[in-house]
Design goal:
Elements lengths: L12 E6 L20 H10 L3 E6 L20 E4 L2 E4 L25 E5 L22 H7 L4 E7 L1 H14 L3 E10 L6 H11 L3 E3 L5
Parallel strand pairs: 1-2, 1-6, 2-5, 6-7, 7-8
Antiparallel strand pairs: 3-4
Amino acid sequence: MNSKNKTIAANNACLLVIDVQLDFCPGGALAVEQGDLVVHPINQLIKRAENSVLTQDWHPKDHSSFASSHAEKQPFSVIEMPYGKQTLWPDHCIQNSVGAEFHPELNSQAAQTIIRKGFRSEIDSYSAFFENDGRTVTGLDGWLRAKNIQTLYLAGLATDYCVAYSALDAARLDFDVHVVLPACRAIDLDGSLAHQLEAMQQSGITLLEKIPE
């Protein structure tokens, strides 16, 4: 690919805005520290992007990833599920709730499509591409292929969970992947941020320290 065409404004590039929802912002059920500070830089990116997609956590109220769905389990504990280890979370982003809504200042109307994930009660979904079994698809890959997208820019919440899982899956699917760190914020649970930054670098993902042109 011609390096001159590797910009967010290129026809074959797409911005993925990950889970900028009220429950992940200050005051929300699973608030990411300073999560609301991603909104302004993401709006800048949306203005520059030729293509943009938003993802939205969209859980039923009895979702299996909620600690409240497991007797005597506390939020942030870990259990074994049929698809592997699962962190248990506070109830969040419940379908049609206020907490599941996008941040009101996010320019969500500019998105070409919205990918909802985590709506199957028996399985969680961090990645924008696959649920946590690594097999059940969200439909995003097919949408991107149909538009001949080759380069992805990721921003949103949280760096070390849904952003990183989406970026790593995108790299495995042979996209050219860039994570815009100033437009992300992390949970950083037990060193998860450092671990995922290293994993992304090892996978050939570009970690951008400033907002791209």
